[in-house]
Amino acid sequence: MKVVSICRTSISGLMTVCLSATLAAQSEMLQTHVAALKESLTQSREQLKQYEWVETTVVLQNGEEKSTKQYHARYAADGTVQKTLIEATPEKKQRGLRGHIIEKKKEELTDYMQRAVALVKLYVPPSSEKIQAVKDAGNASLSAAEPGRGIRLNFRNYQMPGDMLTIDVDPKNTRLLGATVSTYLDDPRDAVELVIQFGLLPDGTTYPASVNLNAQAKKVTVQVTNADYRKIG
């Protein structure tokens, strides 16, 4: 009986040591990938300050286009993106009582759409500072992405309580491949999903090529594309 008891104790102790070693290795791996991701984001942001580009934002409801706006964009001295409107689709207005009712509903929808567009800015591009804060709070994790998509970094409570930013990274060169966001507008019941695709400029700079936002509660979709990148000067 003593032999059995000793064996059980030894196995239990060995399992504890193995588990501790596994957790330590996972923690170290997560730290390594988060550090590499932050460096990649910071480097790309600095390189993008040398560029100007065209941003096109299309807002749809129930699949019907409600507005299209095109901007000339570039980074300002304070690090924010400065946009100048190039072109916008004209608004259609109707007269009379029916027109007044339609305009009232349009105002409410416009406010919602504007907040949806503003929501995109909170997640795109991802902030290295916020990523570190999530990591420090213990809300970051590492998982395997889909085949051919490298590794996946998950950041819970990134911008708002209960949201989730997921970033797929190529482990060979830490290049961002894509990202998804599960978040909401005002109320968690008003769920919003974002899908972000990243592109690569000739000098190796990574940029958010397209963002697709889907707010199911209002059947609103926001499509943002960034293109025509040119170096300033």
Q: Give me the strand/helix succession.
A: HEEEHHEEEEEEE
Strand content: 35-45%
Helix content range: 25-40%
Look at the helices and sheets and give the structural class: alpha+beta
**Main beta sheet: strand number and arrangement?**
10 strands, antiparallel
Distance between the termini: 83 Å
Number of helices: 3
Return the domain count.
1
Q: pLDDT below 50 for ≥5 consecutive residues: which ranges?
A: 17-24
Number of strands: 10
Average pLDDT over all residues: 84
Task: Report the principal-axis shape.
Answer: globular
**Radius of gyration, in angstroms, nearest whole number:** 23 Å
Q: Spatial order of the strands in the main sheet? A: 3-2-1-10-9-8-7-6-5-4
